[in-house]
Amino acid sequence: MNNTPQPTAKSLISPVILFAATLFSSATLMFVLQPMFGKLLLPLLGGTPAVWNTCMVFYQTLLFLGYLYAHWLSSRLGSQRQIQIHTALLIFSVIALPVALPENAAPPTDGDPTLWLVWTLFLAIGLPFFVVSTTAPLLQKWFSHSGHHSSDDPYYLYAASNAGSLLALLSYPFLIEPNLGLANQRLIWSGGYIGLCALILVCAVSFWRSQADNADDEVLSDTGIEPPSTLEQLRWLALAFVPSSLLLGLTQFISTDIAAVPLLWIVPLTLYLLTFILVFSTWAERIRPWMLAAQPAVLTVFIAYSFINPATLPYWLDLILHLLAFLLAVMVCHGELAKSRPHPQYLTRFYLVMSFAGMLGGLFNTFVAPFIFNAVYEYPIMIVSALLLRPGFFNGKWFLQPIFPVLVLITGLTIYFTTEQLFDYLDLIGGALILLAGVSYSLRHSPIGLGVLTGVILLFTLGLHSMASNTIYQKRSFFGVMSVRDTVIPDENQRPETVRELYHGTTKHGAQRLTAANVTTPLTYYSRPGPIGQVFAEFDGENQHWHIGAVGLGAGALACYAKEGQLWKFYEIDPLVVEVAQNPAWFTYLSRCNKHAEMIVGDARQSLLKEADGSFDLLIMDAFSSDAVPTHLLTREALQLYFSKLKDNGLLAFHITNRHLALKKVMADHVNQLHLAALLQEFKPETDVPLVVATDWVVIAKQPERLQRLQQSRLGHWQKLPLTFGLQPWTDDFTHIIGIWK
């Protein structure tokens, strides 16, 4: 029976419309703020997935604190006091507008910047984000006392909140970013925030009117409903923790190990929000059986191809399988969460536990996993955990469910420790694992058995891939997973030769031949036949005392273009890259060719600001985060900075190879707007020399005469940059990834 008071005649608008609109607006502002502020941070930390994941932890932590505040306010105080305190908070929060980075914000260059990033976020957007985060639980609690006929189950308003989140998430890259610069985005967001505060106050008035004829203690009255047990709350915790961790794990995994595609992080978050909309909607009960049935079926194909044998699939199909498996896992977890939601009396406690679990998931992925794992192992761990959370965990003789998976594990370990030539059996073991993936479907009604068997399969799969890839070193840092691998390839005479390669995720960032005749030969994007080799061949002889700056170190191959008397500086944002490149156990370019080169750790733009004007003869820009150039290194202001540090006859060589973005359009626009001269070479190797690869470079100078030697050179085909039409110039205030998609 609904004991809440009936709406008064003074109501001018339906409470459902009012509260839903406010929740929708709040969520929209929250999810516009996140990518907007991410762009503000980009010039300081680059575009690594770890920056996004750390921001997510901050958002989840403030979300938890906002939910904690809402729980305390609504469960401890009467309606009048709630409205007074929250109104004061709304007014006070306006002092933080407009949102902006703190003055002189600069990340540390000698350590992990995670804590610095969290503190910067707190100072810049902490207060308004906290206020926005309180809206969902507090307004739903207020609505449960509105007397509306649906107020006894206000959880469906959570779908409206997530719909706003989803709309904002998709609108930002396709609508907001292409049409508004950051300065205007900040001003409009601040205006929207003030509008939201006004809507919340209207909701507060509606809530106060609905309680006008009742004593404050009635708002807090005990309805006689049993509070949720500790076990039930722990179940909520697990059901929210796993999807949160899975979201960040998948984002990190697909951004570095499958496809380094710009804006790819949007897709998992979109699916994550979509699950909340569906499970809290009126369709939830009809969808749930289909999700439960589809999860183990898709899992069989997913494990067999995306983990055990991913090379058989094109990257886009592999990506789809990962996203589909993620969607089903999160749907099942969130479906069980929504199904177990308590009476509105305990609504804020339910959301509090959910937000706490989300925060824990983010903390685990950002602060724990990078220190205990040398790869993104938290992702497969959460895949298994999602299976264990399927309904029916304790059904029947649950303790017998793991018997078969444990026998498989014991058998596999026995083979591993008793077989000396295990490598010869890798194909056979891979086939056996695929067969086990098929067998796992028979355990679909046994969550423990299905989860444990999947865990066993993934355990052996990861070991299998490690042996097959010949990884000799692997380490994880804030910026991703770095690995060194020995690969056998055919040399010029088709004889097998071992080369050493540096990978960031699945993107190669350097390679070195180990034979004595070729150990100092620059390879991949920096080969002597390629564009950068041609630049050195044409210009290097004119001055023995060049001052050269190189942004992006990789394995250090560029160091082998150094000559006696030259001064070289490498700018590298990831200290782990410097550690690997300087260690002769892995690569010897630096130790053999240029052991005195100066290493400057930190973001290139921030570091170059400290250099004297007119000090460089050559600047080489080769900064990549996986396969994408951080956009703040491509803006007009960035190019102006580079040329302020070059001598009048200095050269800027820009590496623009990219599978997804036509970066030459951006460079052509800058060259035209700044009245510079530039030549482009889209190099394709004409011979089968090992590790000489296709690569695109642009060389820019202040005067066209400076580039005549290069244009007339017979070493390669240099041409002018193509004309661009309708491209809005990229600046620190405006960049548009979609506009240059190939």
From TrEMBL:
Against InterPro entries, the record matches this protein to: MFS_trans_sf, SAM-dependent_MTases_sf
The answer, when asked if Transmembrane helix is one of the entry's keywords, is yes
Q: Give the keywords, sorted.
A: Membrane, Polyamine biosynthesis, Transmembrane, Transmembrane helix
| First and last residue of the signal peptide | none
TM regions (residue ranges): 12-31, 51-70, 82-101, 113-134, 155-175, 187-208, 236-254, 260-283, 290-308, 320-338, 350-373, 398-418, 425-442, 448-468
The record's listing under Gene3D superfamilies reads: MFS general substrate transporter like domains, Vaccinia Virus protein VP39
Q: What is this protein called?
A: Fused MFS/spermidine synthase
